[in-house]
Structure formats: C-alpha cells, structure tokens
Design brief:
The complex is a heterodimer of chains A (about 375) and B (about 250). Chain A is of the alpha/beta class and about 375 residues long. Chain A has 14 helices and 13 strands. In chain A, about 35% of the residues lie in helices and about 20% in strands. Chain A has a six-stranded mixed beta sheet with strand order 6-7-8-3-9-10, with helices on both faces. A four-stranded antiparallel beta sheet of chain A has the order 2-1-4-5, covered by helices on one side. In chain A, strands 11-12-13 form a three-stranded mixed beta sheet. In chain A, α8 links the parallel β7 and β8. The longest helix of chain A has 18 residues. Chain B is an all-alpha fold. The longest helix of chain B has about 45 residues. The termini of chain B are far apart. Classes of the chains: A alpha/beta (about 375), B mainly alpha (about 250).
Chain lengths: ~375, ~250
C-alpha cells in the first residue's frame, strides 16, 4: 500500500479508503448550466443541464432518443465541444484542460466496444497506460490485475485477439481497458446494449459487483429505464431537447415522479418496479411461528418484486425466506408487501436519499463503507 | 507497333544474337529450349537484365507508394481531394504505355527518368485507391474508442488506422508490383534496360526460342516471387487477420 500522502487523497470520498484496491479516489462530477447548440439549429441539443454526481456513485442518463443523453455524456470528455456552462471534475473545470490529457483520465466504454482488432487483449487493455508512458513492467502487472478483476484468466486470455472472444468477454475487456489507468470517472454509453438479455443481466450484475470494489464515479447512458433503475445510484431523466426532467435516486423517481413525462417514461408498472429496489433481506419479515412454511422459499438477496411474482404464481401462499443453510428467517406475505408500498408512498420524498420505510431493517441507499 | 523492331533490331547483327563462339548442338539444331545457352548467357545477358528489371520495379513501386501514401493520407483528412486525385490518376492509368514512354522522351530524354516517371504513374491509381479504402474501412467505433481514450490524430493514425489498413495496402502493393513487372518489359523502347531487352532481341531472332522463353519466364518468375514475398510479409505483419473463432 502506498502511504505517501499526496494531493490524490485530498477530497477523496469515504469509498476511497475501502477495500484493498490501490484505487485513486473517485472524483465528484458537476455539470453547471451546460448547454450545447449546433450551428444552424434553432433548438439546443442540451439546455441548461445541471446536476452533480457524488464521487463513487453511478449516475444513469436515461431518456428517449433525441433527448441528448449521449451528447451530454460526450460533452464531459470533450468529444463534443460545449456551447455554454461548465463541467467540473473533482472541483476543476474540464474546459481548460488539454482534451487528450483529460480523456486519458476518464474511462470510456461504448456500446460497440471498439476494441482494436489488430491488438491482443493485453495490448488493448494497455492502451491508456502506454499513452501515459508507464514503464513496461507496471503495464504488464496492471493488465494481469485487470484481467483478474473482470474474471478472465490472464495466462489464457492475454494474447488472444478480440476476434477470438465471445461478446460478453469483449465487453468485459472493454471495461477493463477503460479502468486501466485507474480513472476517477468512467463514461459508459449503452455498454450492454448489444448483448443478448441473458448475458446482459449477467454483465450488469458483474459490473455492479466490480463497482463495489473499484467505486468509480460513473456516468452510464441507456435508453432502458429498467437498466437505469438497476444500475443507477441516481438517475437523470432527460426529455427531448436535453432538458432535465428529474434527477434523483431510483426509489424517489419511482415513488414521486416529477411530472407526467417522467411517470410515463418510468412506466405504468412503476409500483412493481419499485419492489425490485428492495431485497427480502432488507425487510422486517413476519415471524415464522404460527404459519407453516410451504414449498415456497427464496434466499434473502431475492428482490421483493421477484418474491411477489413467486407468491402470485403460488396463488398467494406466503414465501419463506431461507438462509444458506435452509433455515427459515421469516415469512413474506401479500399483506406485508401491501404495507411496504403504502408506507413508502406516504413517506415524504423530501428527505433526500430515498425514504426508509419503517418496514426496512436498515436505512437503505447508504453505501456500506 | 511500328516502334518495336527498328532501331534495336538493326544493331543486333548476327542471326542468332548472343550466339558467341561456342554454339552448342542444341543451338545449332535450334531445339525448343537450350539449357546450355541459358547457362552460357546467364552472367552476360539474363542476370543483368533480371537485376535491372528488379531495380526498375522497386524504384517505381517505391516512389509510387510514397506519393500514393501522401495523397491518400491527405485525401483521408480532406475528403474533397479524393475525386480530383482519382480523376488524374485514372487518366494517367489509361494512357497507352508505349505512347506514354515516347511522349516522355521529348521533355525528359530517353533515360531512366522517363522510364520511371511512366512506371510510377501506373502505380498511383492502384495504390492510392487501396490505401484510401483501407483507411476508410477502419470501423468508426474503433476510431471513437481511440479518440475517447485520448489518442491524438497522429497516434490514432499510426497505432490504429494504418495497422488496420495494412491488408488493403499490401493488396494494392501486390497488384502494383505485378503490374509494373509486366509493364517494365517495354521500357526497352526508350531505355535499354530490363528483361524487355532480351525479350525484344529474341523476338528478332526468328526461329530461335530459348532466349524468349528464358527472359519471358524470368519475368513471370520474378512477378510470382515478388507477389509471394508480399503475401509472406502481410502474414507476418497482420497475425490478427488469421485469429478467428477458437
């Protein structure tokens, strides 16, 4: 571990000290009245966009096509030049930086991945460290470390070409390449958009697990509200013309959509979607005594949404929450779910980070340090 | 074809040129192909001609490649340059070669410069088109990734675009080299070098076929060898193109 206390540790979030990763601190990202106007177009592509992503959080930009979400993302690493406003990374404006230098500090993942077909997996991952002029042994060690981090065997995969990988492996290598120089910010433009649904779910889960370890500030673009709810600590919903419709936690957006547009965009099933934010382990479950557990059982990490679906499939039979050793922790009943929904709806959304229900064991939304 | 024949032939002298003092039985009986004639004239006739032919080709393709690369890189950056360049190089490409050689004699003289200018002009269309196509076929997402990771234009060109354009570039070089090896056989009309010289001499030799077969055969072998060499170079430089599946 590096003990030397340099400027890097300054302003770091609580996340930076967690874990054995030698990660640089993630940086806070702030957009201030950002606008983008293309010459010859009356309407701006982005209008007065302002929001702040706390260090180490995933912010999902979501919206219908034409809402400017990709444009907004590409303004951040100056792939598109800004027309007005300011963007601050770690408190410093990105506008006065050398664009290439800035981009080397920001991880970049796109939907089509864009791995270099003529370079091996190892060479691809080494791209930014090479541009930064790292010594060779350091690059080689970093490549192997990252391959391990994304769950690929370094010996086996290092010298393969992208054409020899599966779609999922390519996507993972793309993420590893973006993480190579340990950037404080990652930009991800529909990174799982081209992957089939089964593998997409797996890659999403893997990325969330990875994010638990590396704790980067992430700007994640998608058009899929379900993906936004799953991946985001915060969601920025954009509407046509790059207007910010709502910026909040997934829970708040689902419980208190700001307007008709947001309500429509998150879907009529937002009540059910909301249940996917809570897992059984987070609930105060009914005592199993008195009620006989039936055949219906699920582990604590199951979402309430999936549990409800199981209960409904079993015609309302209560569901037993069991731990790893098949011991019953408690029971989930339909009335308990009803109570949870009523509780959340009545809670005032003004108190920031979601609105912890009385039914929850712990305040959720808090990142365990 | 009035050109072919007159001046060089007049100087040829004996009925069977390169005949020397020791005519073998084979030559005397004028068989189809006389190996001993070839070995006796290898050092004095065939090898120098082959070497000159190779030099003519290398210079032409080398200069043509440099010019085409410069034009293609410029047109890759400034798209509007593509059409005028294609137009000019196509016109050059369609000028009949014999006419072009003769046309150049007046301003340049009957020397290696005229020969090379003509040969180079035939490489431009092929090489320019292939290099530019190769550069343009680099997938846009690959370039987007290169830019997004902080490569400069120059770095993207050297590290990404040119390596990925290599198969198209080498394909162009193969066509250019084979074309120029064939075309260089008529350089003799203005400049007395290359395998065209013994071929032309042989054409004037009437029934004796050995020299024609030997010089013509060497031209074909040279073309095949050069082409094969370029295939090997490409295989060595682009290992990723064979890495599929598995």
């Amino acid at each position: 571990m590096d003990i030397s206390n340099t400027a890097h540790s300054e302003g770091s979030s609580a996340f930076a000290k967690s874990g054995e990763q030698e990660s640089k601190a993630a940086a806070e990202l702030e957009l201030r009245n950002v606008s983008k106007r293309y010459p010859g177009q009356r309407e701006p592509a982005i209008a007065e966009l302002s929001f702040t992503v706390p260090a180490g959080e995933v912010c999902v930009l979501v919206g219908p096509s034409g809402s400017g979400k990709t444009t907004a993302m590409r303004l951040i690493n100056r792939m598109i030049s800004i027309s007005g406003g300011d963007i601050l990374l770690g408190g410093h404006s990105v506008l006065h930086r050398d664009a290439r230098e800035l981009r080397r500090e920001i991880g970049y993942v796109i939907q089509q991945i864009g791995l270099f077909p003529h370079q091996t997996v190892g060479e691809n991952i080494a791209t930014v460290p090479q541009l930064l002029g790292w010594p060779k042994p350091r690059i080689a060690a970093r490549v192997d470390e990252l391959l391990g981090l994304i769950g690929l065997d370094a010996e086996e995969m290092r010298d393969r070409y992208p054409a020899q990988l599966s779609g999922g492996q390519r996507q993972r290598v793309g993420v590893a390449r973006a993480l190579a120089a340990d950037p404080p910010l990652m930009l991800m433009d529909e990174p799982f958009g081209a992957i089939d649904p089964i593998n997409r779910t797996r890659l999403q889960d893997e990325f969330l697990a990875l994010q638990q370890k590396v704790r980067k500030t992430v700007v994640f673009v998608t058009h899929d509200i379900d993906e936004a709810i799953k991946m985001g600590d915060r969601i920025a919903i954009l509407r046509e013309g790059g207007h910010l419709a709502q910026y909040d936690t997934p829970r708040e957006i689902l419980i208190h959509p700001a307007d008709e547009f947001v309500a429509q965009f998150v879907g009529a099933d937002r009540g059910i979607k909301r249940l996917s934010l809570t897992t059984l382990g987070e609930l105060k479950l009914a005592e199993p005594n008195g009620l006989q557990p039936g055949s219906l059982r699920a582990p604590p990490q199951t979402s309430v949404r999936d549990a409800l679906s199981m209960i409904l499939t079993a015609n309302g039979e209560p569901l037993a929450v069991v731990d790893g050793e098949e011991r019953v922790q408690g029971l989930l009943t339909l009335s308990l779910i009803e109570q949870l929904l009523a509780d959340e709806a009545s809670a005032n959304g003004a108190n920031g980070n979601g609105s912890p229900s009385r039914l929850l064991v712990d305040g959720d939304g808090e990142a365990a340090g | 074809m009035a050109l072919a024949g007159t001046p060089v032939l007049a100087a040829a002298g004996p009925v069977i040129p390169n005949f020397g003092a020791h005519s073998s039985k084979c030559v005397v009986e004028n068989r189809f192909f006389c190996g001993d004639w070839v070995s006796r004239n290898w050092d004095s006739v065939l090898w120098p001609a082959l070497r000159q032919h190779l030099v003519l080709t290398l210079i032409a393709v080398g200069i043509g490649f440099v010019i085409s690369m410069a034009l293609a890189l410029t047109a890759h950056r400034f798209g509007w340059l593509e059409r005028p360049t294609i137009l000019v190089t196509t016109i050059l490409y369609t000028i009949p070669s014999l006419a072009l050689f003769e046309l150049l004699v007046a301003p340049v003289g009957a020397n290696i410069y005229a020969a090379e200018i003509a040969l180079v002009s035939y490489t431009l269309l092929i090489l320019f088109r292939n290099i530019l196509t190769g550069l343009r076929e680099v997938p846009s997402e690959v370039l987007d990734a290169a830019e997004g990771m902080g490569m400069s234009r120059r770095q993207a060109l050297l590290r990404v675009e040119l390596p990925l354009a290599l198969p198209a570039i080498v394909a162009g070089l193969r066509i250019a080299v084979v074309t120029i090896i064939a075309l260089a056989t008529i350089v003799y009309t203005i400049y007395d070098k290359g395998l065209g010289v013994p071929i032309h001499t042989a054409l004037g030799e009437g029934p004796f076929k050995t020299e024609l077969i030997a010089a013509g055969g060497l031209t074909i072998l040279l073309a095949l060898a050069a082409d094969g060499l370029l295939v090997l170079v490409q295989r060595a430089l682009t290992p990723w193109t064979r890495a599929r599946g598995s």
